[in-house]
Design brief:
The protein is of the alpha+beta class and 418 residues long. The protein is built from twelve helices and five strands. The chain has two domains: 210 residues, no CATH class; 126 residues, Heat Shock Protein 90 (2-Layer Sandwich). The chain is 66% helix and 9% strand.
Length: 418
Amino acid sequence: MTEPESTRAILDDAWGHIPQTRETTAGLGSFTRLRIERIISIVVGLGSVALGAQAFFAALGPGQESPGWHVPLMVMTFVPLAAMLVACLAGRGVRLFAGLFALIYPLALILWPIATVGGSADPDNQPWIWYLVNVATVASVLAFPLLLQIVWTAFVPILFGVVRLIQGAFARDYWFSVALDVSFALILGGMLVTLGWVFRSVAANVDETRARAVESYAAAAAADAAEQERIAVAALMHDSVLAALIAAERARTPRERTLAVAMAREALTRLANTEQDSEEGSDEPREAASLADDIERAALELGVHVRVERSVTESTPSMPGRIARALVLAATQAVANAAQHAGGSGLAVTVEGSADPAHVRITVRDTGAGFDLDRVPHDRLGIRASIFARVAAVGGTSSIESDRDGTTVQLEWREGTP
């Protein structure tokens, strides 16, 4: 299985543990938010049906408007309301039609004093348009961003209060009833906006946590697959190394020695590749200067912040991708060793390159207590496999000098080597 296919298989397996519905396939990462939006639109639609029906039946009775204004105001108000209700229950165009009603209703309120000029008004008898005040505020919850929702929740009830006072010529009898109506509308509208904000915030947090969990699952699955592959390679390595040693021991002619060397190199290459991650990249030629960026990035993933000093001439030749990867991985292992065993004391990394002679050299230094390479246990592969074997497998050279003043790891590749 190729790398892209393996990655897709892991992600498909991760998403397979989550219930798949129309909402999840419509917007991955917004599973809960989409459901909450749908629930809010249905609840708003049902509540608005009740208030809209109350307002409609009240409008069918004797109205406070002039005869020429009553029907146009009803059409102007109830047609957008009906479109919003259908959109809410159908789950299509909710934001558009809710925003349309939220904008048209204040216009109807502004026209109300003109429509009721010369008519009789009772401060204790609410007009039909009153029942739709909170429908307009909750429509803003469906259509507008949070800041505009708050503004609309305060604006619409206050506008209704001003309109009623104008209709009653600011008579004293109107002030008390209008204050009660506006207070009720403000409180209810504030509760609706708050509930919408809370539900949406919880849904967003759930979606974010869910996305992180899926990402963690995919990373864990990839790590497990890599570990299983390393185990399989280790089993093959035993046969490869054993065969190379037998061939070297039995080699008598130049051709046999050449074959033994090729077998040994193949074994070293397999050993070096056991620790390469799944994002090796292509084997296209790489510029020497890019090695410094790769080492900084790899060190940062290990939690080590290091600035790689660059001393690469423009004429430095490119190198095959597999050689560049081997040098970067070996240098990263040296950085990891310096961070682990020397605490990162005096850590410095240098990448040098020139065309005469054509070579690339990477130097990793620290000022730790140093160590004795001969006393490192043979089963510790951090140096022997991850540095020496890896660089040797691509035809490079490596050396380590360590004493009480620190450790210096030097990796070098010269053009013309495999």
